[in-house]
Design a protein that fits this description.
The protein is of the alpha+beta class. The chain contains 3 helices and 3 strands, in the order ααβαββ. It has one domain. Helices cover about 20% and strands about 15% of the residues. β2 and β3 form a beta hairpin. It is globular and about 50 Å long.
């Protein structure tokens, strides 16, 4: 598994050159391998997220985000050091039919 993650971390450097986006969801960035963590350009902190030291956003600010499905739920965006609050109309409901799963496939040796 360590070798597979290492290979993925190497590939992540060139993903943007291929005009590809990689989305990952986690409650805390510590769940993301350290070799990939510093390659993430955009971080979205939804209510309940755990903030780490890689952002200028403070935990107290995330803890005070508004949760209001009627008027919009708030989230913090951190794009390479620039950050601000955005409002989503419904952040908990997935978009119908918009789900893709990716799996690593090892070539036969």
């Amino acid at each position: 598994m360590w070798k597979r993650i290492n290979k993925f971390a190497t590939v992540m450097k060139d993903v943007r050159k291929c005009m590809m986006n990689v989305h990952c969801n986690t409650q805390t960035s510590k769940d993301v391998d350290y070799r990939i963590r510093n390659k993430i350009m955009l971080k979205v902190f939804l209510p309940g997220a755990i903030v780490d030291s890689s952002t200028r956003i403070q935990q107290r600010a995330v803890d005070n985000l508004d949760r209001n499905p009627e008027h919009g739920n708030q989230a913090y965006l951190d794009f390479t050091g620039q950050f601000g609050v955005v409002t989503f109309s419904d952040i908990y409901k997935p978009i119908q039919g918009y789900h893709y799963e990716a799996h690593v496939v090892e070539p036969n040796a």
